[in-house]
């Protein structure tokens, strides 16, 4: 039989790649990136519709009392308006802007670096499905009894507790944030590992385009802060469902939530801002055919913003009574962040002015974003002043400032990026005329929408109506008109893209922009599923020339598909939906026992789907079926330093440590508050370990510690290719890990026998007891997961016919670190509740 040519192999695999099955089960970074982008635009439309409804409500004063027959006397009541405000804010920030930037990053980073794919293709796909299903979980609350979350997007305590927000939609929305956080941690780890481990031969970090640098900085911030916000909302969900009391306001729960939230919330603003800024540098320089202005300084400015963003969050607590020294320090940090921000503005303007432009649509969007950058920046510096912030902190002045950054800069910058890369995504050029019309209407709309809000500096935000006769009406009406103008502009954009894809001829020039930033334009439009026909590398006398090695043609590989990420994502979201349906069968909802039975059935089905995905994932590894296309075109010793798998997994484990550190921080906060002289009455936050429980805990920690050492021995055996030795060490580790799990359960049984510590009796009023039971639950889940991974490794060695020792040694090393992580959580949990 005649062997297939490369062209025949490509055509056969390309049909699979572009099929419906290929899109649903894809692990390819380009398809995953496009799915992120398209899904984020859907959420943009949803969040935009909510915004238009809010603006209609606010266009007329006291709209709830105006009798319009169409609306039966009102348009939105207070509860409906609050739900729209909350879901609009969460959708736009966490489900639109962030994923849009990450979508561009996942699509473009491997292309820019000369890589074949992201480091972990299946995990990359899992991150997308968690993102999609978390968004569905967020919006499904509108269809549950009582409606959706209505606390504002900051979800402050105690307002968001079950006592004041007894709606299932509130719990599903909080659960959505938890799932979204996990997806973001995955995406962040993917980007960081890919940047450091999958660059083309000779490709240095300083060769990277500024957009890649921006996505890298954003990934680092996200990896650091999203575990913390996920832990917060996980505590909220579990507390509401199981009746725990982790955020009792008497013991500082409200202020603890505010500090923790803004420790995430303020860096979140900058991780939404940087992708659009980095994108503008790239398309301004590429379309203007000149290097970005002071590139190294721009990289440093992005890094300074990333670091400083974590240090300025306390200016959101100016009104909470914190000590004066912290107020002054926070004011200084808030002012200093304007320095690197100003550097970026100057860099954008200098890059624009230093080139001859034809003012294509992306350039116009960069111009619009630059002016908004200055307006948002100037009005933001004023917020660093304690005196000014005291006056305007709760009104529409802050709304205008915030939206000039989020919409005027981040959205406009990324829309320019969408136009710029439209030929790369589709192989066709958009209509420049209609693109410019879109820009003109959008630029007018965004300023008509937000600039009048600066004059509403004494109108409280988040109110669903306002009285007439105070001068609010005219500015509110102008803002509402601007909202509809801005919305209209995006109808033009979508129509432009749809018409261009259907009617325009394919591009014949592979690099019509003559762009030089990274290897992005070294591929066809759209790129082939394996990216490059020849190995990319960096050479030349100054080590800056981007080249393709014509002596190393790349044979089209097999298209790698996997059902496992989708199954795991479906299992996760169905479990939360099942929990919501189950609760409908109990008080205070009490729709009947049929709902409880149906909910339990959904949970059981979700568990089966989840296990199908996870066990199948392990089975694919066992059979060496997992997508394992080397993302870079160079060989690397598996156990040499931080190889791909080790780097990614260690980053993921470090993210888990940040997750757990958040809980330990909550415990310390509550302990400090319980000792405060401002707390009245008896102190219900005491905690002690019964003697027998202490014995079980010590045995558990010692057992899992020895298991970690045995896993290290197994790793050493795998490095030396000693199959039996590696398997035997890991088997012994499994036995000790099971002993650790059993003794942990026994310790909880003993603790539960004491009324002062018992689940239910104590956790309803004792926040320390609540946190212990919550952390112990997570420790048990981690232990079960580790045991499963260890057993999978043993089966692989005992039953596997083909052993790839490089992958096997790396897997053993990762298992060792997982076991060590469980050991450390046991140690830190005990210390947190003893000291």
Structural notes for this entry:
It holds the Pfam family COX1. One of its GO terms (cellular component) is membrane. Belongs to the heme-copper respiratory oxidase family. The chain has three domains: 6-553, Cytochrome c oxidase-like, subunit I domain (Cytochrome C Oxidase, Chain A, Up-down Bundle); 567-635; 638-834, Four Helix Bundle (Hemerythrin (Met), subunit A). Helices cover 67% and strands 2% of the residues. It has helices at residues 6-18, 20-24, 29-59, 78-113, 121-139, 168-197, 210-242, 253-288, 295-309, 324-336, 338-353, 361-381, 386-392, 396-426, 432-450, 472-503, 564-583, 593-622, 644-674, 691-719, 723-752, 767-799, 805-834, and strands at 534-539, 545-553. A two-stranded antiparallel sheet has the order 1-2. Helix 21 packs antiparallel against helix 22. 50% of the residues are buried.
Summarize the structure in short.
Pfam families: COX1. The chain is mainly alpha-helical and 835 residues long.
């Amino acid at each position: 039989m005649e062997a297939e040519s490369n062209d025949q192999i490509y055509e056969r695999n390309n049909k699979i790649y572009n099929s419906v099955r290929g899109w649903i089960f894809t692990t390819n970074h380009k398809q995953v990136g496009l799915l992120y982008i398209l899904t984020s635009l859907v959420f943009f439309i949803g969040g935009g519709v909510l915004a238009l409804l809010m603006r209609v409500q606010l266009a007329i004063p006291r709209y709830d009392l105006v009798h319009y027959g169409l609306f039966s006397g009102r348009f939105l009541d207070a509860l409906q308006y609050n739900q729209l405000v909350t879901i609009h804010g969460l959708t736009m920030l966490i489900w639109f802007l962030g994923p849009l930037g990450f979508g561009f990053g996942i699509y473009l980073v491997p292309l820019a670096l000369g890589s074949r794919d992201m480091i972990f293709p299946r995990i990359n796909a899992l991150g997308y499905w968690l993102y999609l299903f978390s968004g569905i979980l967020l919006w499904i609350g509108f269809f549950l009894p009582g409606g959706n979350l209505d606390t504002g997007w900051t979800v402050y305590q105690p307002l968001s507790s079950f006592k004041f927000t007894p709606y299932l939609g509130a719990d599903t929305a909080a659960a959505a944030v938890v799932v979204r956080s996990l997806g973001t941690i995955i995406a962040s780890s993917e980007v960081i590992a890919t940047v450091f481990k999958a660059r083309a031969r000779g490709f240095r970090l300083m060769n990277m385009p500024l957009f890649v640098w921006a996505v890298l900085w954003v990934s680092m911030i996200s990896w650091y802060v999203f575990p913390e916000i996920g832990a917060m909302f996980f505590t909220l969900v579990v507390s509401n469902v199981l009746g725990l009391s982790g955020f009792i306001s008497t013991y500082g729960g409200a202020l603890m939530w505010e500090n923790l939230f803004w420790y995430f919330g303020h860096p979140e603003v900058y991780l939404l801002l940087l992708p659009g800024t980095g994108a503008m540098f790239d398309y301004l320089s590429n379309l203007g055919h000149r290097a970005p202005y002071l590139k190294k300084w721009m990289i440093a400015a992005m890094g300074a913003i990333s670091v400083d963003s974590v240090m300025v969050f306390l200016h959101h607590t100016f009104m909470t009574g914190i000590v004066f020294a912290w107020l002054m320090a926070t004011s200084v940090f808030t002012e200093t962040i304007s320095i690197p921000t100003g550097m970026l503005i100057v860099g954008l303007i200098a890059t624009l002015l230093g080139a001859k432009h034809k003012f294509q649509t992306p350039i116009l969007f960069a111009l619009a974003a630059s002016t908004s950058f200055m307006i948002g920046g100037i009005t933001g510096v004023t917020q660093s002043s304690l005196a000014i912030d005291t006056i305007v902190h709760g009104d529409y002045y802050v709304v205008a400032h915030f939206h000039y950054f989020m919409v005027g800069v981040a959205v406009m910058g990324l829309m320019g990026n969408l136009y710029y890369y439209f030929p790369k995504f589709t192989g066709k050029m958009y209509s420049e005329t209609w693109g410019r019309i879109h820009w003109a209407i959008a630029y007018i709309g965004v300023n008509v929408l937000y600039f009048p809000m600066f004059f509403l500096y004494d109108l409280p935000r988040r109110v669903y109506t306002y009285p007439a006769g105070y001068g609010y009406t005219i500015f509110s009406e102008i803002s509402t008109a601007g909202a509809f103008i801005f919305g209209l502009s995006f109808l033009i954009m979508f129509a432009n893209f749809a018409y261009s894809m259907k009617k325009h001829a394919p591009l014949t020039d592979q690099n019509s922009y003559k762009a030089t930033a990274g290897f992005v334009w070294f591929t066809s439009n759209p790129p082939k599923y394996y990216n490059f026909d020849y190995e990319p590398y960096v050479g030349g006398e100054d080590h800056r020339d981007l080249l393709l090695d014509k002596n190393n043609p790349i044979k089209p590989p097999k298209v790698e598909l996997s059902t496992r990420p989708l199954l795991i994502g479906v299992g996760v979201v169905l479990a939360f939906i099942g929990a919501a349906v189950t609760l409908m069968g109990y008080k205070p909802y009490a729709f009947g026992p049929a709902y409880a039975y149906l909910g339990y059935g959904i949970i059981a089905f979700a568990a089966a789907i989840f296990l199908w995905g996870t066990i199948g994932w392990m089975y694919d590894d066992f059979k060496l079926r997992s997508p394992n296309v080397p993302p870079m075109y160079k060989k690397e010793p598996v156990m040499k330093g931080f190889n791909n798998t080790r780097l990614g997994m260690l980053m993921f484990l470090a993210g888990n440590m940040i997750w757990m550190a958040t809980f330990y921080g909550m415990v310390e906060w509550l302990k400090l508050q319980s000792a405060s002289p401002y707390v009245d009455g008896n102190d219900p936050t005491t905690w002690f370990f019964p003697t027998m429980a202490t014995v079980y805990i010590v045995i558990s920690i010692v057992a899992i510690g020895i298991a970690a050492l045995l896993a290290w021995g197994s790793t050493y055996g795998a490095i030396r290719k000693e199959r039996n030795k590696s398997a035997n060490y890991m088997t012994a580790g499994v036995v000790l890990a099971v002993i650790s799990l059993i003794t942990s359960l026994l310790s909880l049984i003993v603790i539960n026998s004491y009324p002062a510590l018992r689940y239910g009796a104590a956790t309803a009023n004792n926040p320390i007891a609540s946190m212990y039971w919550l952390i112990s639950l997570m420790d048990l889940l981690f232990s079960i997961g580790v045991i499963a991974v260890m057993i999978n490794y043993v089966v692989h060695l005992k039953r596997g016919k083909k052993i790839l020792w490089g992958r096997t040694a790396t897997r053993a090393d990762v298992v060792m670190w997982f076991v060590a992580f469980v050991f450390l959580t046991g140690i830190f949990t005990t210390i947190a509740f003893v000291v």
